[in-house]
Design goal:
two-stranded antiparallel sheet, 13 helices, 2 strands, TIGR02757 family protein, CHP02757
C-alpha cells in the first residue's frame, strides 16, 4: 500500500506553524524547560531522562514532580549519581509519588542510569553503542538503552522504561531522544553523533488525533507501528528531520491560548 503523505498545503502550513511556535517563549508549560538550566551535557542528559520519564498526566503535576526530583539531586545530577548508592537512592525518594510511579521505581531507574554511566561513560554513549550504520531508525538503539537502564529492575514491572520490543510507541523516550538529538531554538541537543533523520515522532494522544485528522495514519492504535507510519509521512517533506514539527504541533494540545481546530481546518482536517 502506498505510504500516506502530506499534501502541498499541509506542508506549507506546517512550515508556517513551525516558524510561529517553535520558540522558547512557547515552551512553558513543558518539562523540556528544565533542560535549559543545565549547560553541561553530562547533567542535561540525566535531567532529560527524568523529565521525559515523568511526562505523563496533568502538566502542572509533571512540572511539580520533576522539580521535586531535581531539587533533591542538587546542582549537578551527574555528581549526585556519582556518589549515590542503591540504599541512598531508596532513602532519598522513598516518599516520592507521581501518579502510579513510586519512589522505589524512580530510585531503581536512577540506579540504572548510574550503572550505565559507569559502564559507557554517559547515557548517550550507551545509546550510540546500540546504533549501527544500517539502522534506519532509533528503534534498535533505544531498545539497547532501555535494556541497559532496566537491569536493576531484574525483570520486575516498570512504567518509566517501556521497550520498543513490546510494540510500545515509547512516547516519553522518543521525546527524550528529540530533546537530546535535535538542536534548534527549542531542542537543546547534545548527542551530536546521532542524526535527527533516525528519530521517531513522540506519539501521544494529541499527536495521534492530529495525525488522524491530517490523514497521516489510518491505524486505530497509538503504538509503535503507528508512530513509524506517521514519521514516514513527515519524512516525505523533511527527510533529514522528520520530527521537526512535533513541538509546534503539540502546542496545539497543550497550551490554552492555541486553537487546534483553526489549524486543522487549514490542513483539510
Amino acid at each position: 500500500m502506498e505510504r500516506l503523505r502530506l499534501n502541498t498545503d499541509q506542508a506549507r502550513n506546517l512550515c508556517e506553524l513551525y516558524e510561529k511556535l517553535n520558540r522558547r517563549e512557547y515552551v512553558h508549560p513543558d518539562p523540556l524547560e528544565f533542560l535549559y538550566d543545565y549547560p553541561d551535557l553530562r547533567d542535561r542528559e540525566i535531567v532529560g531522562l527524568i523529565a521525559s520519564s515523568l511526562a505523563y498526566g496533568a502538566v502542572r503535576q509533571i512540572l511539580r514532580s520533576v522539580r521535586t526530583v531535581l531539587q533533591r539531586m542538587g546542582e549537578s545530577p551527574r555528581d549526585y549519581l556519582g556518589i549515590a548508592t542503591q540504599s541512598s537512592l531508596c532513602r532519598e525518594f522513598r516518599d516520592f509519588k507521581h501518579r502510579f510511579t513510586t519512589g522505589e521505581e524512580l530510585a531503581t531507574m536512577l540506579l540504572g542510569a548510574k550503572r550505565v554511566i559507569e559502564t559507557y561513560g554517559s547515557l548517550g554513549g550507551c545509546f550510540v553503542q546500540g546504533m549501527e550504520s544500517q539502522h534506519e531508525t532509533v528503534i534498535p538503539a533505544l531498545t539497547y538503552l532501555v535494556r541497559e537502564l532496566s537491569r536493576p529492575f531484574q525483570g520486575r514491572p516498570r512504567s518509566l522504561l517501556p521497550s520498543p520490543e513490546l510494540g510500545s510507541a515509547c512516547k516519553r523516550l522518543n521525546l527524550y531522544l528529540r530533546w537530546m538529538v535535535r538542536r534548534d531554538r527549542v531542542d537543546p541537543g547534545g548527542w551530536d553523533s546521532i542524526s535527527p533523520r533516525h528519530l521517531l515522532i513522540p506519539l501521544d494522544v494529541h499527536m495521534f488525533r492530529i495525525s488522524q485528522w491530517m490523514g497521516l495514519t489510518l491505524r486505530k492504535q497509538a503504538n509503535l507501528r503507528t508512530a513509524c507510519e506517521i514519521t514516514a509521512a513527515f519524512r516525505k517533506i523533511e527527510p533529514e528531520d522528520p520530527v521537526r514539527y512535533d513541538f509546534a504541533l503539540t502546542r496545539l494540545g497543550i497550551r490554552d491560548d492555541m486553537n487546534p481546530e483553526e489549524f486543522l481546518r487549514t490542513c483539510g482536517g
